[in-house]
Amino acid sequence: MSYLAALSLIIISTLLITTRAANFNIRNNCPYVVWAGAYPGGGHQLNPNQEWSLDVDPGTKYARIWGRTNCNSDASVCETGDCGRLDCTAYGKTPNTVAEYALNQFQNYDYYDISLIDGFNIPMEFGPTEEGADGCKLSSCTADIIAQCPDPLKFPGGCNNPCTVYKTNEYCCTQASEPCNPTDYSRFFKERCPTSLSYKADQTGNRSCPSGTNYKVVFCP
């Protein structure tokens, strides 16, 4: 095989790896029903020990997967994480534990995290189906946050984020001219789930994997 032919095969193989859809295996290990929500992707009812396989296009960003609890029969109303329908076309309402990701971005890497910025409703594990080096690792949040939730943040079926409760810049970080610093409430979440994001300027839970990686989201790992 000539040098040019070999080089062409390498380039084609690289393009196929970095431009194919990523598969997300979403599993419910909880002893109760979880209505998984995905944006993009819609939604799916997951009984205990059920899985949902979701393919997501390369280049997708500002994406998230979360769980909804205590929904009615058609998931049009849920106690936590509600999006108004089974197949979500928007983010869920707070409080909800969120798996966030952006695929095939800077230097052909995926970027992902578990975020508690919108509060907490279900324990979660999120990351590559096979862990690797250079930060390509699982993140998890398995603490009993609902039971330990500070009184002002308590919410049926979850633990709310302070921005939703107080609506001030201290907790919402909406004023670009003002510093966005950790608070006692963000520290509450961070101490219990150190690999998760706890407020808008928190960067300590960000992870990355080479594009072409497949992922898993596990409720109640």
UniProtKB/TrEMBL annotation:
Protein name, entry field: Thaumatin-like protein
Identify the keywords attached in UniProt to this record, alphabetized.
Disulfide bond, Signal
Signal peptide (from-to): 1-21
- InterPro entries membership: Osmotin/thaumatin-like_sf, Thaumatin
Q: What Pfam families does the annotation carry?
A: Thaumatin
- Disulfide cross-links: 30-220, 71-78, 83-88, 136-209, 141-193, 149-159, 163-172, 173-180
* Family according to the record: Belongs to the thaumatin family.
Membrane spanning stretches: none
